[in-house]
Predict the structure of FAD-dependent oxidoreductase.
Amino acid sequence: MQFTIKEKHVDVKKEVDVLVVGGGPAGIGAAVAAARSGQKVMLLEKRGFLGGNITGCYVETCNHFLHGTSFEAHGIYAEIEEKYKEQYGRSHDIRINSPHRFSSEYLKVFLDEFLLKEGVELSFHSFVNDVIVEENKIQCVIIQSKKGPVAIKAAVVIDASGDGDVAFSAGVPFEQGRDTDGLCQPGTVNFRLAGADVNKLTGEVDQLKVIGKRFNQDYRAGKTGLSCKRQDLPFGRLTPGGQITYVNYPCAYKIDPTDVEGLTRGELECRQYIMEFYEYAKKNFEGFENIELASIAPEIGFRDSRRIKGLYRLTKEDIEAQRVFDDAIALYPRIYDMLAPDAYMDGDGKMEGEGYKGHIYEPITDTRTYTIPYRSLLPVDITNLIVAGRCISADHVAESSIRGISCCMLTGQAAGAAAGLANKSKVAPKDIDVKELQAVLRTQRVVLP
Ligand SMILES: Cc1cc2nc3c(=O)[nH]c(=O)nc-3n(C[C@H](O)[C@H](O)[C@H](O)COP(=O)(O)OP(=O)(O)OC[C@H]3O[C@@H](n4cnc5c(N)ncnc54)[C@H](O)[C@@H]3O)c2cc1C
């Protein structure tokens, strides 16, 4: 059975120079860079706060991939980290050598103030699921509000929704998941625990790391009896009050992150895994005897979903060859982290061999880097749209590298600066002078070859 949706007339509520959809790492970079180029910028976010996966899924390990290497984050991400640290220090973190940069709750407040100070107009609870396209140009973006559809008009639109929702609505072709079966990495619902015994967990050795390692061995030996297939057990900050702020454990597999039925299954499954884990941890981990489940992340988080078709598709071969593109807008170290999409966990973690089927994990071990070309941010067919973050044009393995939070903010920053240049020169984003874009980015602490 089918119904026809009635034609509706929508008033344009607002007109801006640059409209950013999504307030995660990419959207933050995009909105700030566009505002700094003198544009009138509005950011639409479906949730009631900024931060994307960092705050919506408690992913406080923002620079986990770079931690303990010779690489440092740059651009707006580095600035945020520094300013946040000035204001909130270590966010009560007492773990030794901790890679956790933020408390996601303080970060929410920090980002509100940071973006408002930059002159970005924020619109929360603004879910975008439609656009009006005429002559290959987005005329306006439609928000689904409680009062019905609302239209916002902009000269340039930046899709930083993580899932490429704007590009999808505009009919841009996309890929999703791995080539063989379209499966994405699992969805995860992170959670927090309270009441951990701080004395037992601190000292010369980071006991949370020890627990994580032992858990992995016990899981592989079939000793845990837990039904979730995830073997790794990264923990977040440990606070003096005994809070563990991020338990990255429950994983729901074979879920399409853009499908309501799949998302519902993921949330339900992960909550069951959390309860099983909670009982297990209380009984088996030293220092967890009196823990309490403090909170469950507001939403299931995804590491990948749609990857839009752009003017250039970044590949793992480009990364392996350390290609330096003429239109490079970001430089990032060689790293891959792709959790097994099908829960096949016996891989060796390497790009080649069994790891290709299982979890691909290649941390940074040397100084290899690669670049991301501006063309990977430009979708085919639509002339005033730029994409940023984990949905840019890349193959599935390459995406497991560019998904790094500071990298997503770099592609966002490039998109925002490019939108500013396009509007100032009154040309389409694809026709801007890329050398000028690179020069602007360099003045904003972005390191390029
Ligand atoms: C469990 C987990 C652990 C991870 N661990 C790490 C790690 O250790 N280190 C690391 O660097 N990366 C990690 N990642 C990956 C990282 O979180 C993402 O790749 C990164 O956040 C992507 O940034 P983004 O801005 O592209 O998208 P997102 O962070 O997904 O942000 C997208 C934003 O857009 C909003 N939005 C979506 N659709 C719409 C719409 N239609 N209308 C309006 N708003 C919309 C969302 O609410 C969200 O705020 C992890 C991810 C997960 C899920």
The first strand starts at residue 12 and ends at 21. The mean pLDDT is 96. The chain is about 30% helix and 20% strand.
